[in-house]
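Tokens in:
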């Protein structure tokens, strides 16, 4: 018979100060998980980070800081919500878009692999489907029409 208590899963949320990240963090804290969050506050607000979340101010483009955070936390699961959502603006800020959405995601994915994270959950966007009539379905054929949709689809393909 096992006498030790089972360890509570550690969960890391990128974009924890944003809309989706903060709500997921709140839900997971209420469920009793050990929740950590990363955000550079470029699109979210510190006030959104729920009590009970271990917060780290960091930019996902900074590989060294990200590596340190992953090494310290040793999370079991990662919810990757961080992104710069600028669908209409993305054709005019391509470098910024790809750095923030693809390269930052690659940094997170690499750290997940290096640190034996059990699972990464990635939020994409309906922008991967391009023009069409909602509701979109995951069985629809992706056809992004702007750099934002392309960046989200590129990360989907990388994870696949």
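Residues out:
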């Amino acid at each position: 018979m096992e006498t030790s208590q089972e360890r509570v899963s550690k969960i890391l949320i990128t974009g924890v100060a944003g809309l989706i990240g903060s709500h997921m963090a709140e839900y997971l804290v209420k469920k009793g998980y050990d929740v950590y969050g990363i955000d550079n506050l470029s699109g979210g607000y510190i006030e959104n980070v729920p009590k009970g979340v271990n917060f780290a101010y960091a930019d996902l483009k900074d590989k060294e800081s990200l590596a340190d955070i992953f090494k310290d936390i040793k999370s079991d699961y990662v919810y990757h919500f961080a992104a710069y959502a600028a669908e209409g603006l993305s054709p005019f800020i391509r470098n910024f878009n790809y750095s923030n959405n693809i390269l930052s995601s690659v940094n997170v994915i690499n750290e997940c692999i290096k640190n034996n994270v059990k699972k990464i959950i990635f939020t994409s966007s309906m922008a991967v489907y391009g023009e069409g009539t909602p509701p979109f379905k995951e069985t629809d054929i992706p056809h992004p029409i702007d750099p934002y949709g392309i960046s989200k689809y590129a990360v989907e393909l990388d994870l696949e």
